[in-house]
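User: Last request for today: this protein with calcium ion, please.
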Amino acid sequence: MSLNLTHEPARRSWIESANAAATGFPLQNLPYGVFLSGENHTPRIGVAIGDQILNLAALAELDLLPASARAAGRQPALNALMAAGPAVWTALRVRLSELLGVDSCPAALRTQVESCLVPQTGTTMLLPASIGGYTDFYASIFHATNVGKMLRPDQPLLPNYKWVPIGYHGRSSSIVASGTPVRRPCGQSKAADLSAPVFGPCKNLDYELELGAFVGPGNQQGTSIPLASAPGHLFGVVLLNDWSARDLQTWEYQPLGPFLAKNFATTISPWVVTLEALAPFRGPAFARPPGDPAPLPYLTDPADVAQGGLNLTLEVWLLTREMRAAGVGPHRLSSGNFSSMYWTLAQLLTHHASNGCNLQPGDLLGSGTVSGQAKDARGCLLEMTMRGTEPLSLPGGEERKFLADGDEVILRGHAERPGARRIGLGECRGVVLPAAT
Ligand code: CA
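Assistant: Here's the final one, the structure of the complex with calcium ion:
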């Protein structure tokens, strides 16, 4: 994926809030989302720019979009744009960058574009796409090893891990937009010292810090996607919280893997940051330690080895009910980097389609918990508290083994390096509600 004028770090927007050092949405980002505004009750595709949203449907009405993107820009979800493929994605990005750039948009045109702006404050962000299929992977070797140590101290990592990207099919219907409260699930769990399980509210509710990738054009059933072609099928990424009921999971996961411990809710952030926007932050794929097997040929490609990694900082913040009442801001629990993932996004996509399974525009691939080697880079409480045996102390004196009712989990992410404009992924938030009685 090549860099062009849209990545040029010195370029500025005529929307001043997009030039602020702290914004996650400068001219170089241009993420897509679906919003509802006060006056208009039809979901519209928007582009985040500073503290504003540029309404694509309104731009289409004024005939300001490239012809190839006009129909997709009018849709109430991003699926058609995702299906359109990289040539259309680039044409649209170049056009938006021109329209919003201070040096590339003449005054008369600027007035027209201004009429298509909506302040982010006061709008409601919806799910960005109709998600037909959701698959969650397990691509962090550090997460897999930490979790494996608790379950199997003698053999933390199962023998297939370094050969095959592990995943399972999740549930699309329970994916919710950031800000949607999540009810504590009920389910079966069995204490180690009891002979029978009980049914009741989950006691060990957890989050998982993940990146979600939206599929672009995809493949016909019975065909596959070669690794070299995979970037053309990856539209963009969001933050993803794979809420997890650990006590339910422990009892149900054998022999078929996650089920009700995971499918009650998955939260994603509203703005889809395109892989094109992230091009300046690509780098080598994770370097496998000496002695690890090379991936099989269908999971090997020189371009993916050289550029398959993503330098993305991903953080978890916690705001408890007590902190909220005291007017205290959220506390950062951990910070990791996506470059520590054992498998690249392209490898996950290619592996998923390698058996002829058809991936479709708007399908969502979860990366799996993003954990690094360091203790403060562990992406879930299960790992951070070693299954609750080492509780966390919060600044106000509270302790957590797992999540309490009223806790709000906030995922944040950004990409940053010298010589590039810093861009943000926004936030993925969810408050835990008490279990239904
Ligand atoms: Ca997960």
